[in-house]
Amino acid sequence: MFSGLSSIDDIIIYLNFYRIYPMKILVLNAGSSSQKSCLYEITKSTLPDYPLHPIWEATIDWTASQEFGLMKVKTLKVKQEYQIDLKSKQDAIAQMFNTLIAGETKVLNHLSEINIVGHRVVHGGSDYSEAILINEKVKETIQSLIPLAPTHNPAHLEGIEAVERLLGTVPQVAVFDTAFHRKMPDYVTVYPIPYQYLQEGIKRYGFHGTSHKYCAKQTAKILGKPLEFLKIITCHLGNGCSLAAIQDGISINTTMGFTPLEGLMMGTRSGSIDPSIVLYLQGKYQYDVNQINQILNKESGLKGIVGESGDLRYILTEMKAGNPKAKLAFEMYIHRLRMGIGQMLASLGGLDALVFTAGVGEHAEQVREATCQGWEFLSLKLDLEKNASHPVDEEISTEDSKVKILVIHTEEDWAIATECWHIFHSST
């Protein structure tokens, strides 16, 4: 991707040459149902203690329809919405980039003003435990791990290749979701299958690490306590869902495993099921690997029960309309979420804070309320008024609740940007 830059030394020279301020960092955060991007402008040679607000943000919703997607773009001054053709994701990303330099959302004169680009990458396997400059080897690794993250890693590669085409030799950084969970103990990461498969890399990796790590740090700030003395369960609830048990600032357990399919019930993913279901489906219907993958990753979860959509907003609307399948899907979702919290509690042996984050966790007060019911024996008590007040980076537990309940706006993009900043300065 660094045409004309033949070695790491060449890249470092490039970075040193372009170390100017204001520094512009573009972040691409490709999820299973959306492509989120933002541009940060850092005006000083040191990072601030708080997340900066992006000077430009854009989101492409791949789920709006089968043929067209909705792109929302906003700057500090304006907001715009566009309907875009989804026949080519590369073209859609190019349209998104064009809003940086054209129209009412213009914030740059030319894309060459971008100094560095950071990508959220879901699966880094055993190869990468920290952020790294992207080269051909890194791209090959991301490609090789597509079977383990089939709804995400292809999207990451699409973003990387789009940047190569549109921005040329600008340095790109991969920030891996798996990195935060690398310190989980072996008894957590090893599956109870023949040991030889562990040696082939089949183990629990965990995901959403960038979000879990950020939210744990924010929890400590909000509570005014050292992170090293807290036991926290972070609930990252979006189209993909996972929990993390965090003790002393370290992830010691999480619900996702070898792939992002394990664990909680999600938008279109089944989460954990009896493995023999796969064998049964293969035997009865002669499904191949691709068909099984399609069922478990794209046609299950909330969508699998309701049949129309895996978007929780749709589920809640259908519940109000009296749809029994929507009611069942919601009850299953909450039941499995509460089961997962129980698993994380067992690992922690106690709890100081329960944290909700990501699209569902931050915005669905019904999910938070239903999840928090029945934990009074832990002295975990939700303040219903606070919960209904659209909280952001706030505590929503009652005053007498020993376990604090928080809603935190996850800043994965800012966390990725800070990784880029550190790499940008690492050669000094």
How would you summarize what this structure contains?
The protein is an alpha/beta fold and 428 residues long.
Shape field? globular
How large is the radius of gyration? 22 Å
Per DSSP E runs of 2 or more residues, the count of β-strands stands at 14
Largest sheet strand order = 5-4-3-2-1-6-8-7
Low-pLDDT parts are 1-6
| Count of alpha/pi helices | 16
Pathway: Metabolic intermediate biosynthesis; acetyl-CoA biosynthesis; acetyl-CoA from acetate: step 1/2
EC number: 2.7.2.1
Catalytic activity: acetate + ATP = acetyl phosphate + ADP
Subcellular location: Cytoplasm
Describe the protein's architecture and organization.
It comes from Planktothrix tepida PCC 9214. Homodimer. Belongs to the acetokinase family. Mg(2+) binds at residues 29, 412. The active site is at 177 (proton donor/acceptor). With 428 residues, the protein is of the alpha/beta class. It has 2 domains: 8-176, no CATH class; 224-412. 37% of the residues lie in helices and 19% in strands. The protein has 16 helices and 14 strands. The protein has helices spanning 8-17, 89-98, 136-144, 153-167, 186-189, 195-198, 209-223, 276-285, 289-298, 301-306, 312-320, 324-348, 358-363, 365-372, 384-387, 412-425, and strands at residues 23-30, 34-42, 56-61, 68-75, 79-85, 116-121, 132-133, 172-176, 231-237, 241-247, 250-254, 353-357, 394-395, 404-407. The strands form 2 sheets. An 8-stranded mixed sheet has the order 5-4-3-2-1-6-8-7, sandwiched between helices. It has a 6-stranded mixed sheet with strand order 11-10-9-12-14-13, sandwiched between helices. Strand 10 and strand 11 form a beta hairpin. Helix 2 (89-98) crosses helix 4, helix 11 (312-320) packs across helix 12 and helix 12 (324-348) packs across helix 14 (365-372). The longest helix has 25 residues, at 324-348. It is globular and about 55 Å long. The chain starts with 7 loop residues before the first helix and ends with a helix.
